[in-house]
């Protein structure tokens, strides 16, 4: 006779409960408590992580605004602790994801960290593998833009690369060293000047910047990129071209076109669409017509492309890019970008622990008075 396993299970569950239907002391009740404790522990761990990410991001901005950030690396210890805590959580909670706001804060820290450290002598917070992945991502996006969309290439008349590009190694080194001097970097802290492959380029960081902004759009608080953001994105691309051609030894129209291969695709989504293409749809497509590009972006993009092109027949492509470099110094762009990142950081509701630390509680975007905040903290026995 076959055993009725379903019936046996039901009998076991019945025996595990008392006359009122409540769980008896024992395995079932203990398991339920353990499950609840696991969820509670996850909440606690994520709350701590969000706080660490917030404090680390604050420290990155504080360090970068200091008088001489190239000598020390103030955020290093806290960032390392935050990374270790996240690794621990990944194993402890089997890869459970952060909520959207905490995930965005974490993404913001990662971008701010790499951008501010890309010229750092000792630590860039990247690996050769991750940089190669970003380079491959850029190449794939450039191919997608050329093969899948109907947009014309940014550079319609290719450079005479045999006459102008690539620059020789001596000129490239001199240009990189010139930037280091313009940024007041100590001579003994210029590893990146001779390590192009190991230095995160602006071109590498460009898709991360686009995806970071797109992630901000998805936080469901009606935030949208402004005309000022479009201008910053255009500056980012202009600076990336300057860096690639004058400092990194890039040549050819494909590299130029790939840097500017951002906009509204104008075609239907396709299976397994890359993350940077999805981000472009959120940022660059017309709000009322998702197949049309935002006109503001079209104008901004064309303006910055033109800034890099010869303005008269006697001007060479090299002279045009050098002229753009003089009109748009890197230091000014760096300040603008850091200001935008700080704006993103300050615009988010602070983590719960940061609110408690500062004694000001924010509930669903509404900040309580100092007195009400103190009373709430007292009731929470914190």
TrEMBL record:
<protein>
    <submittedName>
        <fullName>Uncharacterized protein</fullName>
    </submittedName>
</protein>
């Amino acid at each position: 006779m076959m055993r009725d396993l379903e019936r046996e299970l039901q009998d076991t569950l019945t025996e595990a409960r008392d006359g009122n239907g409540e769980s008896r002391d024992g395995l079932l009740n203990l398991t339920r408590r353990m499950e609840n404790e696991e969820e509670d522990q996850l909440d606690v761990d994520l709350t701590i992580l969000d706080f660490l990410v917030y404090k680390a991001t604050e420290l990155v901005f504080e360090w970068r605004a200091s008088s001489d950030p190239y000598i020390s690396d103030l955020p290093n210890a806290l960032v390392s602790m935050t990374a270790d805590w996240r690794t621990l959580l990944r194993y402890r909670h089997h890869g459970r994801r952060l909520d959207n706001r905490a995930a965005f804060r974490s993404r913001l820290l990662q971008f701010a960290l790499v951008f501010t450290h890309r010229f750092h002598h000792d630590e860039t917070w990247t690996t050769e593998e991750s940089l190669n992945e970003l380079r491959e991502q850029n190449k794939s996006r450039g191919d997608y833009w050329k093969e899948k969309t109907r947009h014309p290439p940014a550079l319609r008349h290719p450079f005479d690369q045999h006459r102008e590009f690539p620059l020789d190694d001596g000129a490239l080194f001199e240009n990189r060293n010139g930037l280091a001097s313009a940024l007041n970097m100590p001579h003994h802290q210029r590893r990146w000047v001779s390590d192009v492959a190991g230095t995160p380029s602006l071109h590498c960081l460009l898709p991360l910047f686009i995806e970071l902004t797109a992630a901000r759009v998805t936080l469901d608080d009606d935030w949208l990129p402004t005309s000022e953001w479009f201008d910053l994105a255009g500056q980012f691309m202009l600076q990336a071209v300057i860096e690639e051609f004058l400092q990194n030894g890039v040549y050819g129209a494909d590299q130029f076109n790939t840097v500017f291969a951002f906009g509204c695709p104008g075609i239907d989504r396709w299976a397994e669409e890359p993350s940077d293409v999805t981000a472009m749809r959120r940022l660059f497509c017309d709000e009322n017509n998702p197949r049309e590009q935002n006109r503001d972006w079209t104008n901004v993009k064309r303006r910055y492309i033109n800034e890099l092109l010869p303005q008269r027949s006697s001007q060479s492509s090299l002279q045009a890019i050098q002229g753009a470099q003089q009109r748009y110094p890197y230091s000014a762009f760096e300040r603008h970008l850091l200001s935008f990142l700080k704006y993103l950081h300050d615009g988010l509701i602070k983590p719960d622990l940061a609110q408690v630390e500062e004694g000001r509680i924010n509930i669903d975007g509404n900040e309580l008075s100092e007195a009400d905040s103190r009373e709430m903290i007292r009731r929470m026995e914190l």
